[in-house]
Amino acid sequence: MTVLGVGQGRTGQPGEASTAIVVDGLVKRYGELTAVDGVSFTVGRGEFFGILGPNGAGKTTTLEMVEGLREPDAGTIRLLGESPWPRNPKLLPRMGVQLQASAFFEKLSAREQLQTFGSLYGVGGARVDEMLELVGLTDKAATREDKLSGGQRQRLSIACALIHDPELVFFDEPTAALDPQARRNLWDVLREIQSRGTTVVYTTHYLDEAEILCDRVAIMDDGRILAMDTPAALVRGLEADTRVALPNGVLSEAEAQDLPGAERVQAGDLELVMTTKHPATLLQALAERDRLDGVSVRTATLEDVFLHLTGREYRA
């Protein structure tokens, strides 16, 4: 299931011109703890690449080394054709970074925050207005940062990372601690960023959003990459059963066991669940018997892939 190599993403065939990041054999140790243990991956230009895993998996440490914020103990990194360590000034205008904990200048409005960040790169007012509109903060431009909601602060943080129009941007768990509505609003912003041709590298422990947003994902745990591919390919490779559930009373357990395609049947307090590797056959049989009222179908997800790879519950 593990696929190591250059992803085509949305940039065509892989090659040096279409590769944004090449990481080979990356290692980082803290005393006896190996936080990152031989990690290798590549990211194509214009790709939305996700690094997934529970807290403590090594995601943030990996990103900090790729960004040039931390020195690797072993391995090599090429970022836009350059080495990021020692700190490479040539890369700074070409990349943007949004960290887990955002730090803003005190007592400045949203517009003033962006103006201040933009001044470091010689960016003018028109770009500030464009970024405020992109992240949906035009009506909050005069609001002080400490008066913004959590979701609005996250969007402002993203705008600061993008103010200089970088080729490559890193987001480290940008939706952590946000409510469901704020998370989905932020998804729209992230999609728009990639649609403009920006390469996005993204860490998260929310598997559902990675499945929606990412071209490819790498699943990490204990400092290692366990699997890497498109979300759909990882799920297909699992060859997991499909769960078809009906409310109790729609079908008896005995009737369900006789249906073509039903491999296992389990009756619960609220619903009757049938597992199958042939969902089309089973659903057709239910339709022929007029038993589709209230039916729900659950196919495998990235969470199932994680459980299969690690043998334990996903730790968020």
From TrEMBL:
The keyword Transport applies. Its main location: membrane. Residues 21-247 form the ABC transporter domain. It holds the Pfam family ABC_tran. It is a peripheral membrane protein. Keywords: Antibiotic resistance, ATP-binding, Nucleotide-binding, Transport. InterPro entries: AAA+_ATPase, ABC_transporter-like_ATP-bd, ABC_transporter-like_CS, ABC_transporter_ATP-binding, P-loop_NTPase. SMART domains: AAA (SM00382). It is found in: Cell membrane. Gene3D superfamilies: P-loop containing nucleotide triphosphate hydrolases. SUPFAM superfamilies: P-loop containing nucleoside triphosphate hydrolases (SSF52540). It comes from the Bacteria. The keyword Protein transport does not apply. GO terms for molecular function: ATP binding. Belongs to the ABC transporter superfamily. PANTHER family: ABC TRANSPORTER ATP-BINDING PROTEIN, ABC TRANSPORTER ATP-BINDING PROTEIN NATA. This is ABC transporter ATP-binding protein. The lineage of its organism: Bacteria, Bacillati, Actinomycetota, Actinomycetes, Kineosporiales.
